[in-house]
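Schema walk-through. Below, the input block comes first and the output block second. Nothing else is stored per chain. Lengths vary across the set, and this one has 284 residues.
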Amino acid sequence: MALDRRIHAFRPDLAEASLQGRVDAARFTNGAPAQVRVPRIALRAKPDVFCGLDTELILGEGVRVFEVADGWAWVKSDLDDYVGYLPQAAIIDTAPTPTHWVTVPRTFLYPEPDMKRPPVEAVSMGSRMTVTSEAETRGTRYLLTTEGAVIARHLAPVGATISDDYVDVAARFLETPYLWGGRTGFGLDCSGLVQLSMMMAGRAAPRDSDQQAAMPGEGLRRSELTRGDLVFWKGHVGIMEDRDILLHANGHTMSVAREKLDDAIGRIASLYGQPTCFKRLDCK
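--- output ---
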């Protein structure tokens, strides 16, 4: 497999140990485990706040830290192997293993179990935290976590699915703003929508659309498309809600939106050409 800087950590001075013998580097390392400690953080190709957003990591996700220097950490995501730089302050070396994750598009962390208190943070679907106890206030049940109190029905044990149908999950993000590199309930790009929706339906998907196009599956004709199939363009992906309607995060509406597939094909053609493939994954 050719080396890809998105999922392989290598520089002339340092590289991940698994690449020894494949790249030249002054030093190799296995890295050290750490955990994201903030609700969401940009992962960038360079240690520079003005460098474009590649993807995002969210609360409680694990990383391998290869280097910390000048306030930046060079890391690799445990979730999808994405490599990049984030502020050192966004991660913590030692933290309890998360027990629960958020199962709604967005929710709040409260300083105590009372929804009338001003929340301390808002967190996205997929965010992980450790539940320590529970409480009830005025008939509303809360789970108390190391980060704050959360409405109990907004959390489930890590790995619990919210639907067997990832299209159903994706539809919950309708009208969420489009964000290049986004993969949270506060902003999504096209492949971020696919990845997050599949994750909450119990399936693993890589981060970017070209990686998703390479997932095992069956190539289709336009006439064969049905719910859950994927449509790929160069640099874009959408999910079929049924045989005619595409659900996708897109820069045209700047949101997650429904669009007739034929309309999307016609609109996109002048910018990026025709779809590169129609695909049914091995397990939708």
